[in-house]
Every structure is written in structure tokens, then in C-alpha cells.
Design goal:
2 copies of one chain form a homodimer. Helix content of chain A is 43%, strand content 17%. The first copy, chain A, has 2 domains: 70 residues, Orthogonal Bundle (Arc Repressor Mutant, subunit A); 113 residues, NAD(P)-binding Rossmann-like Domain (Rossmann fold, 3-Layer(aba) Sandwich), CATH 3.40.50. Chain A contains 9 helices and 9 strands. In chain A, α1 packs antiparallel against α4 and α2 packs across α3. The mean pLDDT of chain A is 95. A 7-stranded mixed β-sheet of chain A has the order 5-6-4-3-7-8-9, sandwiched between helices. The two termini of chain A are 31 Å apart. Chain A is globular. By secondary structure, chain A is of the alpha/beta class. At the A-B interface, α1, α5, β8, β9 and α9 of A face α1, α5, β8, β9 and α9 of B. The structure holds nicotinamide-adenine-dinucleotide (2 copies). One nicotinamide-adenine-dinucleotide (NAD) sits at the interface of chains A and B. The structure holds a DNA duplex (30 and 30 nucleotides).
DNA sequence: GTTTATTTGTGAATAATTTCACAATCAATC
DNA sequence: GATTGATTGTGAAATTATTCACAAATAAAC
């Protein structure tokens, strides 16, 4: 079985987003060249990425926009509803709960957890906030598949341990620390400081030609 | 002049964060092996990354924790204060302004902009919110070097165009769209949907062995 | 229905990145 | 101050990712 690289998965997300835009704009078909240009890639890259999963195009014509979008959506698992829980209803957590787009994409935030008594048992955007001490039980009972961790850095590892013990296999971590998990658990992280540091690197090292 | 890859810059950020932790824990020195293990890399990778910028270690001993941290900090431009402006004081924008860590790292949010009259001319966390129509002028006058865009997707490009016209060379974009900028402007983006999609890909394609 | 113009899908070639492997170097020990 | 043990720094090798280049396939034109 082929190994799909991180970069390819990342690009599939980009194609998906571009295709959504093209669909909205009324493009019925799109070529690898056109798709490549909007994402600053080469047409060969686009075709190679897609070729790992099958052949979706028509020679001489390109790809049918809607169809390719749906195919990629399927590859990315966006043809599902995923049950998501969010832990840590602070600044970041609240922003995420308010964000409607995730739900539209099939990421359904079903459970919220915090350890602050002032937040527990109150509703937040229509969802009851649970005590983090009931975490494992509720993750299991609600068949949660993805957990978003948005607690302070020091609490991230202990929370992650609970999440893992509940059998959850995928975690999105906003705390700027690498959490340790077993091999079969996938952790992705969003690290905004890292992106800012990338920018300050570029500002500080204009003599190095930085790849973009 | 050597070209430094995105991956190397990303890892430098990771090393920096690890080194800060090791410093706090009281480690005076650290080997490439130890540093590699905490970030799930190889020692050779760590040494190669550093070698682009000089030789900072002592053979037989390793690296002095504090010294290496400061060296990497310097490479990343964290020995500066950077003047930052944030546009779009919604859910994401507010979370970012509240976050003290950025300032500690030298990213100083000096200006806030919005186009909502209810937010303009009010203070938010001690910073006056300006009207986005004064954007270009104020970015110039305050020598802003980094702009964070946290406006709705449809507004991202027009805002970016203003930012570019003010001469700002680095942008951190939270809107899930690729904004077009001249060659000499660096845009990094934080795309949370992309990370969620990566997770749902992993859940949907456990037959592909995904690189982590 | 034949020709022409496109554009895909993919093996081969190239480029980039990572890992290997080891000489060079230094700290610590005796 | 020689010896031992550890760890760096770095060319070379191996691996991985990207791009090239072209046959195959199809739509559109005539
Ligand atoms: N705010 C930002 O812009 C920003 C930027 C980058 C990274 N981050 C990171 O994101 C994470 C969240 O940041 P934030 O600004 O929302 O913090 P916050 O303090 O506003 O919110 C954290 C929330 O987690 C809850 N919490 C604390 N310990 C808990 C536990 N053990 N179990 C359950 N809930 C717990 C708190 O009650 C609070 O509601 C942090 O790790 C932070 O470093 C935030
Ligand atoms: N909230 C999230 O969790 C989340 C997650 C992923 C991505 N995003 C993206 O981040 C961006 C911000 O999201 P949000 O949830 O904070 O949105 P929001 O609607 O809460 O905030 C947007 C802010 O931008 C202001 N604004 C609108 N047009 C403007 C303009 N032309 N100039 C200046 N200000 C303007 C609005 O007044 C508002 O204050 C969006 O692009 C969104 O897609 C948000």
C-alpha cells in the first residue's frame, strides 16, 4: 500500500477549497494547470497527487469541478459527520465553537469540557459544558472520534492522556507543546507562534532565499 | 547563499520551544540526541539544521542549553521586538489579543483595526481599535512589520491589498483562502480546517500508512 | 469519420531532504 | 598529559518528493 505524504494530504485540502471556489464561480470543468496556478504549484504535482487515489479526469478536457471536489472530499473523509469534542472553553475554545464552517464541513462539536466551575453546567452556543472529570465516560458514550485540546499548556498532557484512555485516535492540539501519545494516535497541532516565528525569520534573514 | 527550507525553519521553532523547556527544567547542556528524541527526529537532522547557521556545540559534550536557545532565538529573529497590527477583532482576533505569550516572544500587537462602528474607537485590552479606512496611514506611521489578518474570508484579499500597499512584507492570514501578494511579500497561514481534514483523512484511510 | 488541439496519467529523470558514517574534537578520568 | 568516552559537524549515500516528458485518450472542429 502506498504511503501518502503529509504534503500530499495538505495539498488535497487546498485543492478541495479551490474546487469549492471554482464550483461557486460556475466553472464546470477545470484543468490541472488552472488548479495548480491558484495554489502556486505545478500541474504535474496536482496530477501526481490525485494519481495516488485513482484517475478522475478526462484527457483533453480536465476534471469535472463538482465531481473532483466530491472525490477529494471523500478521500479526506468529508463525506462523513465526525463527532468532535472540545476541551478548554477559553479564548481559543470559544472562537472554535462559534465557528460555523467546521460544522458545515462535517465536524460536529458535540461535547464541551472545562474544569472551571463557573463554566460547567452552563450552555455555550447551545451546548452544555461538562466537567472534565466526566471526560472519559462521555467521550466513550458519545462515540467521539476527534478531540480538540484548547487548554493551557501545562494541562495539555494530562488531558491528552485521558483522551487516549477513552480510545480516541485523533487529536487536534492548540497548546504549544508536543504531547506524547501511543503510536496509533494521530496528533496534529496548530501553532500560531511557529508561524509568527517563520515570519520573523524571513524578516531577519532576507539574505537567505526562503522557499515559499 | 544557502536556501533554508520551510521544514528547517519549522524545526528551529520546535527546537527553540524544547530548549526553553529544558532550560526551565534546569538542564545546563543538551545533546542532539536528546533534543531529537523530544521532537521525534534524528540527531543528524538536528545537527544538520543547525549547521546551516554555524557550529554551536561542543564535541563530546553537546550544546549549552541557554546558549543554543539564544542562538536559535537570534536566527528566528526573537531578539527583536516586532511591531504587529491585527485586522479583524472578531472571535479569532480577540483570542489573539488576549494571548500574552506572543508579546513575551517579542510580537507586540500595537494596532487593532476593524470596520464595525461598534468596535471602532473603543479600547480592547488596552488598545484602541482603529477604523480600517485609516489602515495604510497608520501601518506606515507606526512602522508595522507584521500584520495578522483575522477578517472574514471575503474581506481577506481587499485587506491584504491595503496591507501590501502600506509596504508591509509579512502577513499571517487566518482566513481560509490564499491571498495574492507580490513576490517579495511573505504570507503564512493558519488553517485549522486543514488540520481537521488531515485527521479525518487519517480516520478514513487507515489502510494508507500515513507519515507522522 | 478524420483530423487537430488538449489534457490526462505515469514512468523516468531530476531535485531536495534526510540519514549515514566517521574523522575531528573536547571533557573527564586516571 | 596520555587515555577513554562522548558527541559534534559534515561530506557522501540513501531516500523521498517533485518535475519532466510523452504516449494515450478524448473533445471539438471540420
Ligand atoms: N489565545 C490565543 O490566541 C492562543 C494562541 C496560540 C496558542 N494558544 C494556546 O491555546 C490554548 C488555549 O488558549 P486560551 O487563550 O484559550 O486559554 P484560556 O486560558 O483562555 O482557556 C483555557 C481554558 O481551559 C480550561 N482548563 C484549564 N485546565 C483545564 C483542564 N485540566 N481541563 C479542562 N479544561 C481546563 C480553563 O478553565 C479555560 O477555560 C493554550 O494552550 C494556549 O497556549 C492560544
Ligand atoms: N473562529 C474560528 O474558530 C475560526 C476558525 C478557522 C478559521 N477562521 C477564520 O478566521 C477569520 C476570522 O474568524 P472569526 O470567527 O474571528 O470571524 P468574526 O466574524 O468573529 O470576526 C471578523 C471580524 O472582522 C471584522 N471585519 C469584517 N470585515 C472587515 C474589513 N473589511 N476590515 C476590517 N475588519 C473587518 C468584523 O467586524 C469582525 O469583527 C475568518 O476568515 C474565519 O474564516 C476562524
Amino acid at each position: 500500500m502506498p504511503k501518502i505524504s503529509d504534503s500530499t494530504i495538505r495539498r488535497l485540502s487546498m485543492y478541495y477549497r479551490s474546487l469549492s471556489e471554482f464550483e461557486t464561480k460556475g466553472y464546470k470543468t477545470i484543468s490541472s494547470e488552472h488548479l495548480a496556478k491558484t495554489e502556486k504549484l505545478t500541474p504535474a504535482q496536482v496530477r501526481k497527487d490525485l494519481s495516488f487515489f485513482g484517475s478522475f479526469g478526462t484527457r483533453g478536457l480536465g476534471y469535472k469541478t463538482r465531481e473532483l471536489k466530491e472525490r477529494i472530499g471523500k478521500i479526506l473523509g468529508l463525506d462523513h459527520i465526525w463527532n468532535v469534542a472540545l476541551i478548554g472553553l477559553g479564548n481559543v475554545g470559544s472562537a472554535l465553537v462559534s465557528y460555523k464552517e467546521f460544522q458545515k464541513q462535517g465536524f460536529l462539536i458535540k461535547l464541551l469540557f472545562d474544569n472551571d466551575q463557573r463554566k460547567i453546567n452552563k450552555k455555550h452556543k447551545g451546548i452544555l459544558v461538562s466537567d472534565v472529570k466526566d471526560l472519559v465516560e462521555k467521550l466513550k458514550n458519545n462515540k467521539i472520534e476527534i478531540v480538540i485540546i484548547a487548554v493551557p499548556t501545562q494541562a495539555a498532557q494530562e488531558v491528552a492522556d485521558l483522551v487516549v484512555s477513552a480510545g480516541v485516535k485523533t487529536i487536534l492540539n492548540f497548546a504549544p507543546t508536543r504531547i506524547k501519545v501511543p503510536q496509533d494516535v494521530v496528533v496534529r497541532f496548530v501553532n500560531m507562534a511557529m508561524e509568527l516565528e517563520h515570519l520573523s525569520f524571513c524578516l531577519s534573514n532576507q539574505d537567505f532565499s526562503v522557499a515559499t
